[in-house]
Each structure stands twice: as C-alpha cells, then as structure tokens.
Fold each of these.
Amino acid sequence: MVSFIARVTAASYLSLSIFAGTSFGQNITDDSHFYGQSPSVLPSPEAPGTLSWQTAHAKAVALVSQMTLAERANITVGYTPSTGCSGVTGTVPRLGWEGLCLADAGQGLRATDFVNAYPAGISVGTSWNKALTLQRATHMAAEFKRKGVHVLLGPVVGPLGRVALGGRNWEGFSNDPYLSGSLVHDTIKGIQNAGVISSVKHFIGNEQEENRNPITSTASGGIGGGGLSSSNPANISQTVESVSSNIDDKTMHELYLWPFADAVHAGSASVMCSYQRINNTYGCHNQKTQNDLLKTELGFEGFVVSDWGAQHAGIASAEGGLDMAMPNGGFFWGKDGSNLTTFVKNGSIPEARLTDMATRIVAAWYQLGQDRDFPPVSLPLQYNVSHKAVNARDPASKPILLQGAIEGHVLVKNVNKALPFKKPKLLSLFGYDAVAPPRVNLVDANFNYKFGFLSNTDFFWRDAFAPPFTNPGQIGPNGTLIVGGGSGGTAPAYISAPFDALQERAYADGFQLLWDFHSTAPLVDQASDTCLVFINAFATEGVDREGLHDDYSDDIILNVASACSNTIVVIHNAGIRLVDTWIEHPNITAVMFAHLPGQDSGRAAVSLLFGDESPSGKMSYTVARNESDYNVPIAKPADEFFFFPQDDFTEGVYIDYRDFDRKNITPRYEFGFGLTYTTFEYSDLSVSLVQNANTSRAAPESPIIEGGRESLWDVIATATAVITNTGDVTAKEVAQLYVNIPGGPVRQLRGFDKVEIAPGQTETVKFTLLRRDLSDWNVAEQAWVLQQGKYPVWVGASSRILPLSGELTIS
Ligand SMILES: *[C@@H]1O[C@H](CO)[C@@H](O)[C@H](O)[C@H]1NC(C)=O
Ligand SMILES: *[C@@H]1O[C@H](CO)[C@@H](O)[C@H](O)[C@H]1NC(C)=O
Ligand SMILES: *[C@@H]1O[C@H](CO)[C@@H](O)[C@H](O)[C@H]1NC(C)=O
Ligand SMILES: *[C@@H]1O[C@H](CO)[C@@H](O)[C@H](O)[C@H]1NC(C)=O
Ligand SMILES: *[C@@H]1O[C@H](CO)[C@@H](O)[C@H](O)[C@H]1NC(C)=O
Ligand SMILES: *[C@@H]1O[C@H](CO)[C@@H](O)[C@H](O)[C@H]1NC(C)=O
Ligand SMILES: *[C@@H]1O[C@H](CO)[C@@H](O)[C@H](O)[C@H]1NC(C)=O
Ligand SMILES: *[C@@H]1O[C@H](CO)[C@@H](O)[C@H](O)[C@H]1NC(C)=O
Ligand SMILES: *[C@@H]1O[C@H](CO)[C@@H](O)[C@H](O)[C@H]1NC(C)=O
Ligand SMILES: *[C@@H]1O[C@H](CO)[C@@H](O)[C@H](O)[C@H]1NC(C)=O
Ligand SMILES: *[C@@H]1O[C@H](CO)[C@@H](O)[C@H](O)[C@H]1NC(C)=O
C-alpha cells in the first residue's frame, strides 16, 4: 500500500500519467492494461544510406535485390553455430554470401585460446583517456577479426549505472552520459578501424538484471535469466513479464540515449536491443525507441540485433524495427526466417521492411570492408578436441594492455606519502585477491573461464543465468579478479596477479615478501614496512549485487590494520565498493580502487605501488558513505504489478553525482576524484563563445546525420585552463569541466582533458563545448534547445574540487 501511494505521488511530480496504477489491490493479469504507454511509430524507417554509408548502402541494395524473399529472411535469423561464435546468421549459398559470426564481448574475445583479456569497461571509464581507449579498442577488435568474428557484441553503455547494485555496471564506462558517450565514441572508432562491426548495447533502459527476462514459473526462465526476487512465491501459474523501465522523454534524451547518440555518431554499424520492456513494450519490439529515437532521430544506418532470446513476438518485432533475431528466429520469425516470408506474403508486414532488414545487415558488412579478405572463423566449438591454433595476439598490444590496466587504478587515500614505496625491506601481503585463481583450464568441453568466473571456482556459471539464480556472492574468494562474470567474461592469455608481480619485484629489488591468502586475521611480522591487503567486489551479468561492501573482506582489512600501522588496501571492484567500515582507521594509510584491469593486473598495480608510474585514474562514479545514500533501488514485482514488474525512473536525470549534488549529500569519494604522487595547481580559466557561432535557441536547420541533427555537433564555445605540476614527480592529470545548464542539475560534466606534466612544468588543457553539450531536451518542442542566459562553468580536478569558475552568456 505504502509503495503504491509513493508511486502515484512520484508520478504526479513528474506528471507522467503512465506511472499511476489503476486497479488498486488486484493483480493485473492482462498486458492490454498497458497498451498505448509506448507510442506507435510506423513505418520502421529504411536505412538512409547517407554520407559515409553511400557506397556500402548502394552495394547492399544491389546484392539484396538479387535475393529471393526466402533468402532475405534467412539472413535475419540465427542458426545454431557449428563454431564457437556466440551466434551466426543464415547465409545465401546461391550468391556466395557466407553470413556473419557474432561474438562476445566488450573486454576481449570470450571463451577461446590465443587472445588477450583487456581492462574492462569500468577501467576504461576510470582512465578518462580517450587516446588509450581508441588504441585498446583497435587492438582488441583486431583479435576478433583474426579469429574471423564479424560482429563484436559490445561496447556497453546501457546499463548506464542507474542502480548502484546493478550486476552489469562494470561492463560500461561510467554512469555519467557525457563520459560514457566520449569513451564509447572512441571505442567504436577503434573497433571499426580494425574492420569489425561493433554492436553497442543494450538499447535501452536495461538498468537492472533482476526480472530482465520473463519467467513462466520458477522452474524455467528466459534465455539469459534474470530471475524473480527470492521473496516471490514459487510456482506461479502466470508468466511474469520482464521489468518495464518507465522513462520519461526528457530523461531518455539527456541520460540514457545520450551515449547511444555518440555511438551512432561514431558510426556503430549495429545496435543490440535489450531484454526488458520500456513503457511496457519489449525493447526489441519498441517502435518509439527503435523506429523513432534510433532510426529517425539518430539516423542510425546499421542493423538492430536482439539480445539473445530478447525477441518475444514476430510481426510486432519486425514492425518495431528489429533487423536480426538471435540466437534464432525460433517460433517468431521461423528457424529459417520463413515466418517472415509468410508475414510479407499475407500482408502483415510490408516487403520493404524485410528488404530493409537484409539491406541494413549487408550494408554493415560492406561498410566494414568485410567483403574483402575476411579471415575464416577459427573458433572451435570444443577445445578438448584437435583444432588449429590460431594466434590472434599481436605483441604490439602489450603496452596497450599494461597502460590500460595502470590508468584504470584510482588512488583515493595516501597519508603522509605512504605510496609510492621507498625501498622497503619487508612487505607482508594478505587477502584472497592477491593470488591468481587456481585454475585457468578446461573443466568440461568448454573453458572454465567461459563466463569470467575464474575467481569463483565453486560457482557454476549457469546458475547466474537460470533459476534459481544463485547469487555467486559479493566476492570472488578464489583469486584475483580481473573481469566480472557473464558474457563480458574474458579469456586471459595469462594472469599477472599482484603476488606474481610482487615476487618478481622482491627478486629484483631484494626485499623480503611474506604472504597469507587464507587467514582472516593473519599474524603480522612487526618488521613489515607495509602490509598490503588485496580484496575484491564481484559482479556478474544475470543477477544484481547483494551489497556494496562485504563483512568478510572488511574483517580481513580491519584485522590486518589492527596489527600493522602501515596498511594499504587495493580493491579489484566490479562496480561501486564502499569503504566506510574502515577508511578512517588510523593504520590504513593508502587505498587504491584497482577496478578490473584485465590480464596485466599485478604488473600494473606494482608499477603504481613502487612509483614507476604515478596513478592517473579518477572515479567514474560516486563512492557514497552509505548504501542508503544512493537513491535508486532494484525494482521488484510488487502490488498489482506482480506479473508486470514496473520500474519507474521517477528520479529523472538525478542519478549518481547529480543526485548527491542536488541533495547536498557528502560522498566519501566524489565523481571525478583521484589522487596521484604529485600536486597540481589550476589557473587562468578562459571560456568564450566561438566567433560567429549560431547561438539561437533552436538548433539551425541541418540534415540528420549519424547521431542526430548535424548542427548539434557545432562548436559553440571553447575553454582553456593552465595546470602546473607543483610537486616533484611526473604525473598525468584529468582536468574536468562542468557546466550548469540553467534549470538543470547543479553541474554536469561536459569536458575533460588528460595531460602528462613534468614537475615544475605547465600545460594548457582545452575543452570544446558543442551545441548538444549546452542544450537540454525540450519535450514540447521535441528538440534540443540552448537556454538563453548565463551558464556557470567550472574547471577542476573532480566534481567537487573546482578551483576555477567562469561563465558563458548565451543570447
Ligand atoms: C514513455 O512514456 C513517457 C510518458 O508518457 C514518454 O514521455 C516517453 O516518450 C515514453 N517512451 C517510450 C519509449 O515509450
Ligand atoms: C539459409 O542459411 C542456412 C545456414 O547457413 C543455409 O544452410 C541455407 O541454405 C540458407 N537458405 C537459403 C534459402 O539460402
Ligand atoms: C513447485 O512445483 C514443483 C513441481 O510441481 C514441486 O516439486 C515443488 O514442490 C513446488 N514448489 C513449491 C514451493 O510449491
Ligand atoms: C511460425 O511458423 C511456424 C511453422 O510454420 C508456426 O508453427 C508458428 O505459429 C509461426 N509463428 C508465428 C509467430 O507466426
Ligand atoms: C499472416 O500469417 C501469420 C503467421 O501465420 C499470422 O499470424 C497472421 O495472422 C497472418 N495475417 C493475415 C493478415 O492473414
Ligand atoms: C571433450 O569433453 C566432453 C565433456 O565435456 C566429452 O564429452 C568429450 O568426450 C571430450 N572429447 C574428447 C576428445 O576428449
Ligand atoms: C574457493 O573459496 C571458497 C571460499 O573461501 C572455498 O570454500 C573453496 O574451497 C575455494 N575453492 C577452491 C577450489 O579453492
Ligand atoms: C595500529 O597498528 C599497531 C601495530 O603496529 C597497533 O599496535 C595499533 O593498535 C594499531 N592501531 C589500531 C587503532 O588498531
Ligand atoms: C549505513 O547506515 C546504516 C543505518 O544508519 C548503518 O546501519 C550501516 O552500518 C551504514 N553502513 C555503512 C557502510 O556505513
Ligand atoms: C498477485 O499474484 C501473486 C502471485 O500469485 C500473489 O503472491 C500476490 O499476492 C498477488 N497480488 C495481489 C495484489 O493480489
Ligand atoms: C541561426 O539558426 C537559426 C535557427 O535555424 C536561424 O533562424 C538563424 O538565421 C541562424 N543565424 C545565423 C546568423 O545564421
């Protein structure tokens, strides 16, 4: 009852009529109750074939025009792969078109041999390094190509990270749309430079794992799982549909669609639609999101592929803009797409729609040059049988892997220069996360590391995807965490664990190393210069996290700290990890969030601990003092919406720091925060409008290009500031620019620049503000508009360390 009233109150606050339930107290059992909540937008637009797509589009039209209806339909559906591809499309043998291999995922090619495990999305986010992001993506995607993969199923910008406990937040870069958008742009440029199609995902509003898929009873679940909450009764008779993300239009544009616009602007040739519903229509059938937002407003040229099993209707998904059904057309489009042919023949869908699906798929293939010399698929189905060793690794990737791992680390506490180490004589090493997992090997026909559960040896990966949705726990107790779980899991060529790298260093530098990875209260040799404690925070696709800190790890830290006056904590965290249980302990002198560094984890940590390189990462999310400081809980089936779980995004754009700033909540570590081994001074902010920039309220008339109206990318203003390294070591600084768009959040990130500065030297950081960066979405006008008036602007080292301020006046 209470929550029902809250629902109505919140709804009227945002005046969103759809948020109000009607049949008080009685379970709604019929989906028709929700009809009309997501508007109908028909027809699904045909691929525009503009600008850089002209040639590929023309070639696709030519090839597709030779295909029969059945052949066109055949390439829109998946077939059971005879290889290790996550999915393969149908082929057109008559015309020699061999189809596409699609494979996971955004941090490396999953579940195979001879590939590298790159730093995960969260580490890319905390590096704030665009150039490195581009290089990582290029090197990673080159491995996909060498293995014959056409479509890389990533990167992730949805979930954005609305829910602190979200199981997949670590796959994305940041819960700030601007940071996420900047980094997804460079990631897609990198992937596609390597000749691989990127399928940016999950479109859209896929912000929690729980109830992401429909559940017909507790004994079964949809592909990919995402189950009922444990509080629900067993053996329900009616299907519980996927959770519905109810998102108003302004929030959609300013938050969740924003990074997808950057992805499309970068030329992403594919988008993956998501499992859950939006305004009670399934993501892969949603005419408003796919036909209107993606294919009209953003001018998307490529194809929409369903997440695996996310298709729940035949005609509706075709009309709703879905172009490819994975892993198969199943009941809806037919196993060879023949139902689609039927739909066309009996007039249920226009033939042009089917032709457009095929054209979009084939155009993407041409656009990436995959018609010329594309390597054959060399991903075997099983690895315990004889197979050709195809090395996809390039030695030139080594510095990219290491640098990515290093720059994803964020130093948050460093009392009296505890770090970097100065010629220690004795280091004591503790915590289950310091050592490599006991097994990186085949455990059955597949790899043990198939789904990134290396640090959870006793957990059966499938349990995260199917009932009873066992939660693997908050930590990976069996070894160092380099990646989260699920389809974003990686296949490391090796793992440099902290222990391994410290052993090497002990040999080279001649210090003594003691270690204990199992005791929760180890004895401490009082001659130790430092006690290092490595812990982790695990998260996986399929289930959301149970908490943001765990007592087991906190106990180890507190026990070591009680016996060691110089205790340093390093956390490998797949998402937000709270530290308030121990952060003020006087013996805890330094703390580093190491995130998910990939296979060069230990090597990276040691280079930072010993000061070979200065830390340069910054938080890409807010670390609160308490769980209760985060405003968005996981939505559960409740009240009359038991069979149709509702998730009302009533907080609007106020997630993470936008909410902390609005409510003036003091975080433990704010968005954008991170320390290093030197100090920087900021000076000389200059902000100005670009001469002759059109600052009219409405965006100048201009064509729709990939990503939206072209004039949204016009540069309206620029800013510069000067940074001086006032300390005594070389280090990189991420200077950040925040703007208050009148009427919007207190401040929003709208620029960042990472520069390396030697001691005593200065560098000028530069920011470019586009029309879209300074606009907000006007729902009535259905347009981005510039506010006329004063825009306060700040530049500094975090969202709360803002020594420089200025103003832009737009008139
Ligand atoms: C969802 O409903 C809200 C409120 O009516 C509307 O602003 C928004 O455009 C709708 N979005 C979709 C995708 O249906
Ligand atoms: C559809 O694709 C399958 C799988 O590649 C292929 O065996 C079949 O011949 C194709 N059908 C047509 C009509 O081309
Ligand atoms: C659910 O149904 C199964 C099979 O009918 C039965 O074995 C099980 O005991 C039931 N569980 C509950 C909690 O009723
Ligand atoms: C698809 O075709 C199969 C076989 O002809 C049929 O049983 C099924 O009902 C069709 N599905 C839809 C959604 O029309
Ligand atoms: C066309 O065929 C499909 C699949 O058999 C069926 O569901 C649909 O109702 C038919 N439509 C018409 C207009 O006959
Ligand atoms: C490979 O492993 C699977 C079990 O996971 C087994 O069924 C199969 O026989 C094995 N093949 C060989 C050649 O060992
Ligand atoms: C993994 O860690 C758990 C918890 O500490 C432990 O019970 C289990 O035995 C470990 N498994 C292996 C294979 O070491
Ligand atoms: C700090 O460590 C020392 C051991 O070096 C210990 O004696 C002291 O009690 C610790 N302080 C706290 C607050 O636990
Ligand atoms: C959060 O606040 C609750 C209630 O005040 C308290 O019980 C809990 O210990 C706090 N958690 C942390 C991590 O400080
Ligand atoms: C809705 O149905 C569920 C499952 O049968 C039941 O547990 C719940 O109490 C029902 N809710 C209402 C409001 O009737
Ligand atoms: C700026 O754009 C607006 C809106 O399209 C247009 O009316 C106006 O003429 C433009 N101003 C200049 C100076 O081009």
Amino acid sequence: MTLFENKKLHFSDSKKTIKDYKSGEKIDVYLKIQGITKKTKKDGSPYLTLELMDKSGKVSAKIWENADHYFKNLQEGGIYKVSGFVGEYMNQKDIRIDVIRALGPRDTDFDETDFVEKPAFDTRETFDEMIDFMKSHLSNPFLLQLADLFATEHGDKFKNHYGAQKIHHSYIGGLLEHTYSIMKLAVLCSEHYKLDKELVLTGVLFHDIGKVYEFNVNPAVEVTIEGGLLGHLIIGNTKFLELKSRINGFPEDLSCKIQHLIISHHGEKEFGSPEVPKIPEAFLLHILDLLDSKLKIVEEALNNSEVKGLFSDYVQVLGRRLYVPPKG
Ligand SMILES: [Fe+2]
Ligand SMILES: [Fe+2]
C-alpha cells in the first residue's frame, strides 16, 4: 500500500456523521455550529472552543490559530465545511479544526435536515404519558387544574427542550426525560416516607420549567437575558405564580410550599438556591434531582468513553475516573 492510498483510507467522506468519528482520524465534513467561546492560551493568545452538531449528535472542537478572525466571522447556528483531526479531551471526542469555511455554490452534497436535531423518542406521546401519570396520583382539584394549565401553556416548549445546556440531558426531550424520571421516583419515595405526594409531584413538574426560558436551544444553545440575570429557579417560580393566578381560590399555604420546592431544589445557596430545603418534600425533590442528574452524567460518560484500560479518562464534572468493566 502506498502512502497516498493509506492517507486516502483515513480520510472520511463528507457524509460521515459525528457518532462514527474515531479518534485519530481526519475529517472533512459539514457541521453546524451550536456554540462558540473565545478563551485564552497560557501565552495570552486567544483560541476558540466550538460545539458542533449534526443529526447524530454533538462534538466539541478547538481552533488554535487565527481565533480573532474566526470569532468575528463564524456564526452560531450556521453550517460550515470543517476539516480537522479527531482527538480526545477529558474523556470525550474533540476535534482540532485545521480549516473551517462558509458554504459556497459547490457545496450541494448535504441536506439541511441532516442538521436538525431529532429526539430519540416520541416527545409528544411521552409528555402526555407524564401528565396522565401525574394526574393519576392527584386528587386535589387545584393541583389537577394546575397540571392541565401547565400542559396547555408550556407543553410544546417543554417537550422540545434540553435538560441542561451541557453535562446531562442536553438534547431535545432531555428536560422531559429528566422530569418524568424524577416523577416516577417521587411517587415511590413519597409513599415510602409518607410525605405529601401531591405536593412533591407538583414541585417536580415545575422545578425546571424555568430552563425553557433560561436558555435557547435553537439555532444555538445560548443563555437568554432573563436566564443569565434571574436563573431557572426564579423564572420557574414566576411561571408557577402566573398559572396559579388563573385558578380561583388556590390555597395560599399550598402555593407557598410549591414555591419553596421550586426555589430550594438546588439544595444549597452556593448552588443557586435562594433558600435551602426546609420541609421534607423539598429535601426529597432536591435529592431526586441530584440522583437523576448524577446517574445520567455517569451513563453519558460511560457511553462516550473510548477506554483502553479499566478506567475512563478523568471526568471533570464528577472529579474522578470511572471503572469500565471489560466487555465480553
Ligand atoms: Fe434545576
Ligand atoms: Fe432538575
């Protein structure tokens, strides 16, 4: 085999998708930019980190040279032709971009729909299932009304949103998956600990609704003004108050407890909660939220790691390497 043939073998075609990238290979593909951040190298010069996506998934990338030029000219939400090298950083695939250019008239060998993120499950069906599940555990007429109002007012945006900008559940349907998962656990735990199940379920439903307004996911994942200045706990609380105001005679003490669950669900003031949990139901919501996000982070880290030994690379958000049982 000649050197030329060897090189050709490792050069992927433009139809290759992110999930097929292998460490060590060169790519020359179309990708959509979801996010661009300018950072500073140790020597003080700038570089860029990019979040890139296609319909198969997402990947991080870096541009080490001409960062100021690219930062000025690249647009979040735009599709570009990207040539580079697939490496690894912090246990994840990471592209070193050599050339990235805007599309020209000759770039016809791709389809716009290749860059539309598709949820992995039927979000409409799952959302309806979640609301039905919740209502089957409710008897309080005010909370039943609130669940219906939530569905009509926020349902469409909620089911098409991410669970987080990065780190866990950051895909369409992620917020729904996360919320429904906690809801199922909330029923089991509320019954086990003899807590107010209806209060916990309502807190679960509203706890992350603020994320829908905290950051946009299309055309790029980007924090909104109210997201950056208020955060999703305060926004979520406001959304609850808006809906509650449409229900005549909603009990004040119940309203106060629901608000408490929403604003205390991060558990500690240093994690963004204006108040810490002070009733058992709020402790439960906080713990279940943490449980669901932590286990998702572990699952995603294990799924994304290409392991050579028994342990994954360092997973920064968990502060450790994970044991990966040998396959087979
Ligand atoms: Fe949250
Ligand atoms: Fe959450």
